[in-house]
From TrEMBL:
SUPFAM superfamilies assigned: PLP-dependent transferases
PANTHER family: DTDP-4-AMINO-4,6-DIDEOXYGALACTOSE TRANSAMINASE, TRANSAMINASE
Entry protein name: DegT/DnrJ/EryC1/StrS family aminotransferase
Organism in which the protein naturally occurs: Catonella massiliensis
Keywords linked to the UniProt accession: Aminotransferase, Pyridoxal phosphate, Transferase
UniProt cross-references to InterPro entries, sorted A to Z: DegT/StrS_aminotransferase, PyrdxlP-dep_Trfase, PyrdxlP-dep_Trfase_major, PyrdxlP-dep_Trfase_small
Length: 360
């Protein structure tokens, strides 16, 4: 069997033909009608009233904070276990990222840890629905923040196609953010999107991402803004990717069920509880004893895998004091298995067979 890569993008003649048609049409490449079309597709799919697309997910997170009036000297609570873009987006605008531990079952931000981290400087919480998961009591987080006048925002970068209690992730907060980088369920190479039901916040977002001007092509600036615009070239690809989203969500769930079936009962492997009726997994993740040796064993057998994010508070980029026991534990044991949408049942069966062989 050929080497099974841990993750790769998927595109076909539909994207290629659409790009060719766009170029033949004389499109100017810059953001225009195709970008607006993609934004409408995302809003319709998620059920949000508004969507605005950015160059990448990190930028979209920062823009969400700026739209909420957050800046220098403010604190934003983030989980210690997340992709580094979450705290980086906070500190990019001069605010301070305050790390908290995660819940052992969902790997999402722990509620009590969040509550205990609030100070008079806390202006927002960035809730990360890691790997498309979300606690069923997420409304508890929302209500607490609302009662304290704290903005509840969602980093749903890994969660397009995932729901909680029947509601698409990214819609529980005032603003939700998605990413379209290469490993995501749909990709435009790079890209991010903000969704919201709040018209006032949406109007702020639109201005911030386009130099702060009152309308496109104008040289009248109502607020400070930057060039965070997209391109129609990327949007053309994104539109074709969105057409495949439903089938990809269904396939991701099928793959998750097969992984669960074939990995169950292996001593040394812990499966993370996942509601595959609502969650479309980004990566297929396990907690593994002897993780480093397992990783090498898999590699020797033609299988790519990837270790979990580290505890971010202790990374050289931050170097913050603190003890986050759940994050520290799962970061030492966590392993992402092959997760590309192109993965076949035969390949999944081979991967699981090798894991079982290693532990037996």
């Amino acid at each position: 069997m050929d080497f099974i890569i841990q993750m790769e993008p998927s595109y076909d003649h539909n994207e290629k033909n659409a790009l060719n048609e766009y170029m033949e049409s004389g499109g100017w490449l810059m953001e225009f009608k195709k970008t607006r079309e993609l934004e409408s597709m995302i809003a319709d799919y998620t059920g949000a009233k508004y969507c605005s697309i950015m160059p990448n997910g990190t930028v979209s997170l920062s823009v969400a904070l700026i739209a909420c009036g957050i800046g220098v000297g403010d604190e934003v609570i983030v989980p210690d276990y997340t992709m580094v873009a979450t705290p980086n987006a906070v500190e990019l605008i001069g605010a301070k990222a305050v790390f908290v531990d995660i819940d052992r079952d969902t790997l999402c931000m722990d509620y009590d840890a969040m509550v205990n981290a609030v100070t008079e400087k806390t202006k927002a919480v960035f809730f990360v629905s890691i790997n498309g998961r979300c606690p069923k009591d997420i409304d508890k987080y929302v209500e607490f923040c609302k009662s304290r006048g704290i903005h509840f925002l969602e980093d749903a970068a890994q969660s397009l196609g995932s729901f909680c209690n029947g509601k698409h992730l990214g819609r529980f907060g005032e603003i939700g953010s998605f990413s379209f980088s290469v490993p995501k369920i749909i990709t435009t190479g790079q890209g991010g999107a903000l969704i919201t039901d709040d018209e006032e916040l949406y109007n702020k977002i639109v201005k911030i991402r386009d130099f702060g001007r009152d309308k496109g092509g104008s040289d009248h600036y109502l607020t400070k803004g930057w060039n965070f615009k997209f391109t129609d070239v990327q949007a053309v690809i994104g539109i074709e990717q969105m057409k495949k989203l439903h089938s990809r969500v269904m396939r991701k769930k099928e793959m998750g069920k097969l992984y669960e079936k074939l990995l169950s009962g292996i001593t040394g492997v812990e499966l993370i509880p996942t509601d595959l009726e609502e969650t479309s997994p980004w990566f297929y993740d396990i907690l593994a004893d002897d993780r480093e040796k397992l990783l090498e064993f898999l590699k020797d057998n033609g299988i790519g895998s990837r270790i979990f994010y580290p505890p971010l508070h202790a990374e050289p980029a931050y170097g913050y004091e603190g003890h986050y026991p759940i994050t520290e534990e799962i970061s030492k044991k966590g392993l992402w298995l092959p997760s590309a949408i192109t993965l076949t049942d035969e390949q999944i069966t081979y991967v699981c067979g090798k894991i079982r062989e290693y532990y037996n």
